[in-house]
Amino acid sequence: MSGDFGSYAGNSRRLCWLHNLGLVPYSAAWELQRSLVTERLSDRLLNDVLILLTHPPVYTLGTGSSLDFLKFDPTQTEWEVHRIERGGEVTYHCPGQLVGYPILNLRHYRQDLHWYLRQLEEVLIQVLAVYGLKGERVAGYTGVWLEGRKVAAIGIKVSRWITMHGFALNVCPDLEGFKRIVPCGISDKPVGSLAEFIPGIEVEQVRQHVASAFSEVFEVQLIEVEL
Questions:
Q1: Is pTM, for the whole model, over 0.85?
Q2: 143-162 burial: b if 16+ Cβ within 10 Å, else e
Q3: Which one of 16, 82, 93, 199 is CB 3.0 to 4.6 Å from 55, fit for a cystine?
Q4: From CA 226, how far away is CA 1, in angstroms rounded?
C-alpha cells in the first residue's frame, strides 16, 4: 500500500519518507537506521524518514542500562539481546508491538530533546484517542500509560541533531516476554497493551493511525515509499 499523509497542507509541510517494513530482525533495522543517519550527517538536505515495523522477540538495553534489570544471564540465554546507543533501560520487542524509528533532522523542527520526547508521546496519545482511550504521561518518566499500565516506551539517540531509535507501542503482543525483565527499570508499574482494552485490535490498523498522528504532530507530509 502506498500513499501520503498531510498532503492537504501542500508544499508548506516538510517531506518525510514513510517506510512500512513489516517484520524485520532487530539487527537489520538497527543497521538501516545507522546507514540513514550517516547519510544525513553528510548531507543535511536529505528528506527525513519514519520507519514503522515490528520485530521478532528481542531485548535491547540502552547505553547505560543496568544488567540488574534482566532476570536472566545475557551471556547464557536463548533470547536475542543487544546493547544499543539509545537512552533508557532494558525493553522488549516482539510481534504485535508497533515500533517507530523517526530519522529526523531536528534543526528543521526544534533543537530540544525534551520537546522531541514530548512530541513522540503526543503522537501516541493521539493514536489512543482515536480509539476513545486516554493515554497519559507520568511525571518523571518517558512513555505513555493507559489506566496505570505502560503501553508505549520511548528511547532515542541524537547525533548532531539527527535522531534515531524511537518508540514502541504495545498493540497486541504476548506480554510474557516482559516478565523476564524490569521493563524500562520501572518495577512498580505494569506493562499493558491496547488489546487489553480493545479485543481484536491489530497492528496494521494502528499503523495507519500512527502515520496520520505523526504527520499532524510534526507537521510533515509523509510519502510512503519502498526501500
A1: yes
A2: bbbbeebbbbbbbbbbeebb
A3: 93
A4: 10
